[in-house]
Amino acid sequence: MSIVTNSGIERAPESSGASVGNETLLEIRNLKKYFPVKSGGVIRRTVAHVQAVDGVSFTLDRGQSLGLVGESGCGKTTTGRLITRLYDPTAGEINFEGKDIGPLSRRQMMPIRSEIQMIFQDPYSSLNPRHTVGTIVGTPLRVHNMVPEKKTLARVQELLEVVGLNPEHYNRYPSEFSGGQRQRIGIARALALQPKLLVADEPVSALDVSIQAQVVNLLRDVQDEYGIAFLFIAHDLAVVRHFCPDVAVMYLGKIVEIGDRETIYEHPHHPYTQALLSAAPDVKQAAIGGRRERIRLEGDVPSPINPPSGCRFRTRCWMAQEICAKVEPPLLQIGAKHKVACHFAGEINQAPQRPITAPLLGVDDQGNVQGGGTVTEMHDEPGFADTWFDLKTQTVTSA
Amino acid sequence: MSTDISERPGGTTAPGAPEDPFLVVEGLTVKFPTHDGLVQAVTDLSYTVERGKTLGIVGESGSGKSVSSMAVLGLHDPKHTRLSGSIRVDGQEVIGASEDRMRKVRGNSVAMIFQDALTALHPFYTIGDQISEGYRIHHRVSKGEAKKRAIEMLDRVGIPQPNRRVDDYPHQFSGGMRQRAMIAMALVNDPQLLIADEPTTALDVTVQAQILDLLQDLQREFNSAVVIITHDLGVIAELADTTMVMYAGRAVEYGATREILTHPEMPYTWGLLGSIPEVAGDADVRLVPIPGNPPSLLNPPSGCAFHPRCPHVDKVPGNLCRTTLPELVPGERGESHLKRCHLANPGEIYTKEVLPEIAPDLLDPTTGEMIPELAAVDPEEV
After folding, report:
1. Does residue A351 sit in the same domain as residue A236?
2. The domain that contains B236 carries what CATH number?
3. Which SS3 state, helix, strand or coil, does residue B242 take?
4. Residues linked to residue B83 through DSSP beta bridges, in sequence order
5. ipTM for the complex?
6. Domains in chain B: how many in total?
7. Distance (Å, rounded) from C-alpha B18 to C-alpha A183?
8. What are the CA-CA distances from residue B357 to residues B270, B282, B285 (Å)?
9. Three-point CA angle A368, A373, A375, nearest 5°
10. Which residues in B lie closer than 8 A to residue A276 (C-beta atoms)?
11. A280 to chain B: closest CA residue
């Protein structure tokens, strides 16, 4: 797949400068989304809340990619939709270029919408079957007055060429394209406004394997070319690993482990991450060395309406002890770019005997509060600090 | 575990006794007449599955993998389908069999697990009713006994509190539990042949692992033959003893699973292997996708159906790929590894050109040969 470099698509002005890289584009702070559960009858009172996203914090730098993985129902899609403001957050901040876009009104959001775009999972339901490709890709251009009316078609054709479609096909309807080609149309539409952030919600999971690779490569080219930051939401661990230098693992509305790719895939410290990785089938391993031992997780994800007390993973965790039911483990930074939320964080079969978090939280090993005080509150700040809690020495260290 | 599950009604053979393969498919061709012309969904397909063994069928959508398996159960409407060839289940011909006879086979000795459990289960009936229905049709039992059997099956597939959940409706089950319920439904009559059509595709990885483990356990217990249809080579690698790769309605490669995954001889299989990212290994290797799109079956390409997407067409002299359909014949590695390709030296091309691109870590960096674990794979070993 070749990218047309000298096309009229200009890089976003901020990202073309030399200062690309470590500048934070998006900072999510303690983001929450509770969906109300209404009772039946005439007066539909709110009887409970689905805690879809419950206190998520992370940062995303310009031109970088963060992968969000987890099982269905863990809140990864809701997080993506909050960032694109398709949902209104219940609490927390969405700082986009330093400005909290959470409380903005519809009108105030308008200029920012062009900078945050989304690629949807299903290329069949996300394109209007009665609009031509030209209309689909051209609509964002018209809505945001990006180019003069006369030049819209030329711009649409450029975009089609960028995503590897024949520019002459602007007059065709989505039904005339295959699944992979439709996903390319969706990508062209997302690129039309030269966004700074693309939220890709399972962009390849509806496609055939051979087509998946084409689309992943295209997304990579697009990112290299235009310096777009990606929030890549997927349940396929291998695809995320391939695309994202940073990965966050979510479980039941919370981030349980976040770090760079190498740490998460080679040295996972959270039992859920370990289970996820061991469950993913691996062709090469199976072909050479026979079948690997799987960690069997029992049961299903608990209901987010009434999540378990303490650690939310404890009902399916093989290491769970008393403290896990009593005290919620904080998302603790244990490496330069590694945070984990587990009382017994450690590599597979090397988990510590005693909860590492107990002294920090001011509780004993069973999770009982010492000396009549309260559990020490530990807030998770987005991003990574310069100092962290070293698991071996049990002290705060720095690089 | 109660005793009547392990009792198989009829058809038991002494373990280890030599027998014909349970499922024999020979020269199967499936055509659908449409307004636009005749769609040849499956062409001249042959394979066998023995008891206790698993055959994996891989391919893209439209490669004919589901169509061929539905023919085994006689699920195609005879008015709109033209079937030819032979399908024998336990020695009995399926093609042309009467609807009455097929009803006795379906759900009894042959059962199917479908991809999407939510659409395959009826939303109006309880899980228990749906599981026991098949049991009551094939056995003369009372409703109460059938329900007992349904509870037993739910317990067997790992549904907690089966005696309470048996009265639930499908929407009260989670995705993984629905898939389990459907497996329970398929297994209620102890089928000797189980066809699983993308059984885990709609599921999360942890649930997928649970279901794959369950299928393996059940197969071991009942010694049934299993056909698993998937586009996920990872699932094939974990489950299948033998693998068949399909493209445009034809088998293009067939052999022992380890052999196919380590010494593939057909460029389409190379393409599939290059397309999948790995959980381990070098993350920055660029994926090598197969260019283009799957062909239309209305108007399939001339010669080898894969030639418009094949990067190695030029290595075959005389424009053979474009004009002549290659036969499915043994390749370089012996009788048990079949391939449909004109390439004369696929092993060399795979080691020299394909592997360095898709999996450099499988090559010895000094000699450029395959690492010993890979080279030592015995093509005959299943």
Report:
1. no
2. 3.40.50.300
3. strand
4. B30
5. 0.77
6. 2
7. 51
8. 11, 12, 8
9. 60
10. 205-206
11. B205
